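[step 3/7] inverse_fold.run input=structure_tokens len=411
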């Protein structure tokens, strides 16, 4: 009897060992659904290259599960409808890891579609990795078990931004300008809410929303901003909508402060050039001068692509997936999703955590300012001779914000 029990125990151990190594060498296919053409296409192209660059770094021995990551892209033309077609095509090809980030309207459509797909197709579940879409609803009223956000949402960014602005006595009159979709609406909402709490003396002297990726000349908007008497402009614009806005501000003679999310993103550094020195700010989870391994990766990326790496959340995507797959001993999205909940990993700037309550990554935020590159901050995006110099770090516990998410988990 004892002999039989020993053999059963040994068989169980062998079985567990096999399960632990079952995913080693397995190929994990990921599809990124984002714009690769049009005015905002250059951002999506940069990010697809970034995913493919880091797929090499984090494959095999680069992750604790030993899996190999492969990433392809589908151009969604920044359209929710096109994105749903792309999602169906990817699922039909057997892809179970969907990646997206540019456009919260797209993110909301994908979240809803993936949640419904998973409910209707047990055994064929899909995980949605969100690297950049920051509408707070995605981890609040419209949260989904299958959605994981690696960027900091607008409520987090505005808490940090307003905390910094609180201590800027020359910020007295603020104008808010944004893209006319859920992201731009949320930026305005949270800017007004946080300033009202922290600097009730500040006046909101104007607020505008403009069509997404359609405005080629922002001169009329700059004229309105100047006429309002604003000393500060706040915008969540990204891609061409920010670079063209910055260009118009320089040409139109707006000399006030500009607070942004995406100064470091394709096109904007060139639009700024040496202008905006000391008065254009960015709030983000990383910047161009993080140091250590990140600096090495950025230099290698620039050498390989003649382009700048700026979407640091991509690194965390691979870190989290690798550890979650090792923990789950599987690449099955159902098991990986469960393993990713509450998971903590050491990243390029300390420990980050995928909060179980809403699947919002908890991470530090940085306020940086556009200044001349050199000394401790040498990296110059788009060879401008300028860079983003860190001014203030907001640790996880400071940048974190509450959630109203009522997560519906699979039974």
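[step 3/7] decode complete -> sequence:
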């Amino acid at each position: 009897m004892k002999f039989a029990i020993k053999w059963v125990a040994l068989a169980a151990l062998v079985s567990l060992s096999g399960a632990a190594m079952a995913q080693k060498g397995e190929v994990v296919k990921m599809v990124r659904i984002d714009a690769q053409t049009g005015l905002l296409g250059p951002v999506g192209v940069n990010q697809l290259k970034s995913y493919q660059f880091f797929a090499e770094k984090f494959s095999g021995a680069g992750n604790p599960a030993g899996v190999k990551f492969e990433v392809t892209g589908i151009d969604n033309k920044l359209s929710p409808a096109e994105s749903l077609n792309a999602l169906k095509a990817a699922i039909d090809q057997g892809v179970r890891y969907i990646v997206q980030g540019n456009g919260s309207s797209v993110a909301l459509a994908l979240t809803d579609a993936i949640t419904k797909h998973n409910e209707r197709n047990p055994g064929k579940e899909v995980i949605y990795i969100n690297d950049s879409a920051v509408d707070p609803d995605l981890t609040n009223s419209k949260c989904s078990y299958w959605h994981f956000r690696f960027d900091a949402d607008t409520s987090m960014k505005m808490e940090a931004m307003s905390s910094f602005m609180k201590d800027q006595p020359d910020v007295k009159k603020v104008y808010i300008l944004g893209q006319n979709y859920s992201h731009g609406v949320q930026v305005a909402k949270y800017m007004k809410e946080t300033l009202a709490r922290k600097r009730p003396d500040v006046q909101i002297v104007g607020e505008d929303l403009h069509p997404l990726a359609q405005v080629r000349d922002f001169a009329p908007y700059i004229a309105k901003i100047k006429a309002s008497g604003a000393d500060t402009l706040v915008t969540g614009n990204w891609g061409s909508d920010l670079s063209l806005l910055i260009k118009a501000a320089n040409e139109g003679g707006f000399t006030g402060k500009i607070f942004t999310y995406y100064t470091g993103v394709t096109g904007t550094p060139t639009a700024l050039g040496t202008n905006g020195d000391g008065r254009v700010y960015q709030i983000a989870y990383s910047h161009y001068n993080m140091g250590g391994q990140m600096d090495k990766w950025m230099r290698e990326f620039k050498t390989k692509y003649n382009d700048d790496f700026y979407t640091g959340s991509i690194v965390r995507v691979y870190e989290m997936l690798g550890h979650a797959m090792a923990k789950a001993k599987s690449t099955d999205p159902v098991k990986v999703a469960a393993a990713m909940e509450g998971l903590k990993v050491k990243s390029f700037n300390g420990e980050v955590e995928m909060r179980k309550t809403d699947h919002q990554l908890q991470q530090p935020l940085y306020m940086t300012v556009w200044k001349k590159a050199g000394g401790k901050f040498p990296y110059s995006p788009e060879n401008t001779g300028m860079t983003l110099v860190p001014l203030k770090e907001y640790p996880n516990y400071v940048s974190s914000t509450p959630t109203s998410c009522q997560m519906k988990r699979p039974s």
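[step 4/7] annotate
Residues 2-20 form the longest helix (19 residues).
The first strand starts at residue 27 and ends at 34.
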